[in-house]
Structures are given as structure tokens and as C-alpha cells.
Amino acid sequence: MRYSKMLIPTLKETPAEAETISHQLLLRAGMIRKLTAGIYDYLPLALRVIRKVEKIVREEMNQAGAQEVLLPAVQPAELWKESGRWEIYGKELLRFQDRHDRDYCFGPTHEEVITDLVRRDVHSYRQLPLNLYQIQTKFRDEIRPRFGLIRGREFIMKDGYSFDLDEAGADQTYTAMYQAYSRIFQRCGLRFKIVEADTGPIGGSFSHEFMVLADTGEDTLISCRQCPYAANLEKAETLPPLTAAAEEPPQPLIKVHTPNVRTINEVAAFLQVKPAQLIKTLIYDTERGVVAVLIRGDHEVNEVKLKNFLKVNDLTLASEPLIRKVTGAEVGFAGPLGLNLPIYADHALQPLANLAAGANEDHHHYLGVNLDRDAKVSHYADLRQITQGDRCPRCGAELEFLKGIEVGHVFKLGHKYARALKATYLDANGQEQYMFMGCYGIGVSRIVAAAIEQNHDDQGIIFPMSLAPFQVLLIPIAINDELTIKKAEHLYQEMLDAGLEVLFDDRDERPGVKFKDGDLLGIPLRVVVGPRTLAQHQAEVRHRQSQEIQMVPLADLLAHLQASIAQERDVPNHPHQ
RNA sequence: CGGGACGUAGCGCAGCCUGGUUAGCGCGCCUGCCUUGGGAGCAGGAGGUCGGCGGUUCAAAUCCGCCCGUCCCGACCA
Questions:
Q1: Would you say the C-beta of A202 is within 7 Å of strand B?
Q2: For a tag site, which of A54, A280, A391, A570 has the least CB within 10 Å?
Q3: Above pLDDT 70, what percent of chain A?
Q4: Each residue's pLDDT tens digit, A515-547
Q5: How, if at all, do strands A32-36 and A94-97 pair?
Q6: Is the CB of A37 less than 7 A from some atom of nucleic acid strand B?
């Protein structure tokens, strides 16, 4: 491709709207433009990278036994009502009507559609297992789109769905997908980590997320320094406390006047106790009623765990009037004593004695609270966020906290959708059985952003060979020198004939401009020819990542480039951790 | 949706507080000359509903109100 013919509108200055590095560089390199919040145009260079990602995804999915399909983006409400998700998916689901006022949505995911397809055309155990995937544009009306391609509302996703006879078969498929995903992200040159994850609104029994490690990542994950345990922060389990029972003898309950002392820090300072000796009492409103949640003063509630534990969809901290109504006191003085609500406590509180807590009375707290003596705790459970001091829930070793960008997610769904949409088959005995499903997502457009987050320097993008829009950038110096341009044209043709993906910078620009643009675009290999190098029958080859420069005889140039490309193409920049 | 910031040429910004010629600057873009190994130089030029609507005023980019849009921080997710 000739640079002069290609739409590559690079920018010298960083647009003010871009905060993260991948967003800035994608804009500056002329790869994307924003149409409206969370919705982007992909320009030619970006599309080439996306096609590279897609190719890797297709090769690995096909290799793993999956088949590609293409499902509609617009979906009828009926299917979503049948699965029950029309009600529970929330505002993220973009809904609209057609001219007959029938309800539709733009697909954020395709469990309903694929299950509908399969239930209509698959009826026998002989047709299973079946593993179908597609690469398609999704729309999720995110509350807050941000970071360019990392969290768009419209984005390109690979979504796959498997249908197995039973759980044993589904486990095999899950493993195959897990391995295919590992290979995909390795081939994309990403440094990633696989973590246990919550299943969220997709549902199902368990899942793993593939996290690209990057400081700008939105997710926090924890990883054991000793054993293989790794989990998303919201999923990470906490160990029950080691001390079996209270060591100190229970003190009598004392009510203390605590004027205008509301927050944990204020109460701790006022009562001269540590935050860890306080009980934080939070009132939550759910679709199944109001509950109280107790947590140690220095801990935070993990609302995902709480949702799962309570088996609720809606979970919000109670409003001020509601708190007053159920506790009889202003916000800041709630406590477990005499509270007429179901009370759930984090297991870290169980062995603790002589704590401080709100008195459910304005400006008063209790000292000497012993939960088993003074309150009615319905259940103790793991309800809190893991923190820096926690140990690995598997082996007890030290944990590491990391930031990551989720690029892939595999779920074991079980019978959830098969049951809701009646996807059944007849087994060998003529018995009707539900299909056992799994689903598998990859953020294709997000991978492009994640790759840039991990591979850049102060001059621009450093694409791994496997994703680069071009393998080679050919720059002739002194464009008006007839011999140079003639030789460069000749080299360009040779490279094309040899099947190299080459961008020929034939613009009438000064060398500095071409070098700056070249570094910004991140093409792995740069070949420069000019009067000086040609006089020695050589070309200069520069490696974008290492910045190493080699002078290569023109006669060896093609072979040299092909060797470099072959060496790097399927080898990640960094080994998988 | 809660909190914060912003909206002036394709991009980055100044002007606004204290209203008043033709709304500026840098980059980019067009033409010509010149230059050609890290975003050159000179000369000429194009490009603006100052986010929108309404109000105050003799006069509004500037003051007031409403609306729209964008970004950042939190609750959601490939």
C-alpha cells in the first residue's frame, strides 16, 4: 500500500478528550475517530489490525472445533422475555420499536438467539456437541463509556456458544475453549493472566476472565505468589478468621453519647478504638426486602458477593429516609442491636469480642458489643472485599494485587438458557434432556486497545508482528532523487511480490515527518533507502521495538525481512505469565 | 444516575472576570519558492452558526436562564 493513497490522518497533538494511552495513540495514529460517545469509526489502519485479530481468533476457534456463524444484531423482545432477561438486563440493553410498534433490542450478547437457533434445528444426541461462534458488532448502552476502544458502547466481539450432552461434555468443551483463548492472547502478543470471575448477568455456574495486565486497567485482580490461585477482586474469596473463639472475656454493654460522630474514622477516634474494633452496619434495599449487613470497620462490603449470597438482582444502599425508618436513627448510628431486619455479617466478625457499634439512636454508640450475646445474626458469610493484608484463600500465601483489562471471558452456563428456552434433545434412550451450555467472549476491538496499552513508548505504538497493520514500512529519503525513488519503487514491488505486507511512504515529505509518523504507527520493521545507503548497495533496517538499526545489503534485504517476520510472527513479545 | 470540569476553525488553546472596531495565536490545510536523515524556512491564502435556544442591553464569545453535547471520578461490563 502506498502511504500517499491511504487515509492515515495522524495528529501531532493529543486530542483533549483522550486520557488513556491507547485512546490517545489510536486517535493520533489516525486509526479511529469518535462519532459520538462510545461509538467510533475504524479507519483503514485500525481495520487492518482488527482483521489480524479476527484471523487469529478464527484460526484458533476453528482448530478447537468451533464453527463460525453470523447472527442478527437486531433481536425481537419475545426471545428476551422468554429467557427473563428483558426485565433484568436493565438500561444497558438498547431497546426500540419498529413501525408496527413491536419491541426489539440491539444485541448486547446472543445467548437467546443462538439457543433459539439450536432448539429449532437440533433434536438428537447424535447432533451434539455443537460449538458455534460469530464475530460481530455488539451494542451495550454503557452507563459511562470511556477510554476509547476499551469501553465503547458499540464494539466488535467474538462470541461463542457450546451445546453439550451433559456436564462432562461441557467441561471438555470449556477446557478446549480455555486453551484456545490462551493461544489466541499469546499470539496477539499480550501479557495476560487468567482469573476466576463472577458470572454477572450472563449467569451460569463458574467462569474465568482473561486479563491483559496494564496499569490503566479498570479491573483489579489478585494473584497468589505461591499457588496458581488468581481471581477478579470482586470474586476473590477471603479466608475465615484463624482465631476460633473470642480470647478476651466479654465486657458489659455500655451506651455512649457520641455527638455528631458518624463515620468509622470519627467513631474510632472518638471512642479511642481501632477501626477494626468497630462494626459497620449497612442497610441495603433489595427487591426481596431490606437487610442489614455487618462488616468490620476497616473492611468494605463486596456487593457482588452480597448479591450472590442474597440471590437478588437489585442491591442499593438504603436511602436516608429508609434508614431512619428501619433504625430509628440518623445515618451514622445504625447498629445490630434490636434491629428488626434480617442481619448478615461478614465472617471476619464472628470471633471478635467487645466491639463498638451504632445504637440505633441519634448520637449514641455501644461499647462492649458481643454479637452472639447482643444481636440476632441470621448468617455469617464471606461478604467483604479482599484487602491487601489478606492471604491466599487456597494456600494461605501472600497475594499480589494487579490491574487488568478484561479481553476474554469464558462461562459455564449449565442449563440456564436451555431450560428457559427449552433447548432439548433426545438421548439414546429416547429421553428428553436439556442441553448443557457454555459461552465464550472475546473483545476484538478491545484487544487492539489493550495491545497498545502494553506495547508503546513515548514515540507511539509498538505493534507486535502478529497484529501490526503492516509488517514493513518502506521509506525513501530524498524523494526527488531519481535513483532513490526508482530503487525504492523497485524494492516496493519486490516486497509485494514476495508477499510482504508493506506500507510504502511515497509522500513528498521531509524525512523527519516520515520517521515521526512511522514511529507513531508502530509498524515493526522500517526500511530506509537514500542516496547514502544506496551508494553502498545497502538499506537500513530498524526494529521498532528494540530500536536496533542494521545495514543490510540490498541483495539480502528480502530474505532478511522474511526471516525477521517469521521469527516474530507467532512469538509473543513477552512470554505468557 | 450522583460529584467535578469543559464546549471559540480539522487539532491544541487565548479572549470571557471588567460587554464595545473586522474574534486571535500555534499546528494542520491550499498555492508558490526553497529545503530533504527525526514533525524546516519565506511569501501569499482558504477555513468560524464563538454548542443551541431564549433573556438583559443601544451593543453579547463575554452577563443571566434553560437545553444539548463531551470528558474525568464513583455504582456496571468483552
A1: yes
A2: A570
A3: 97
A4: 999 999 999 999 999 999 999 999 999 999 999
A5: unpaired
A6: yes
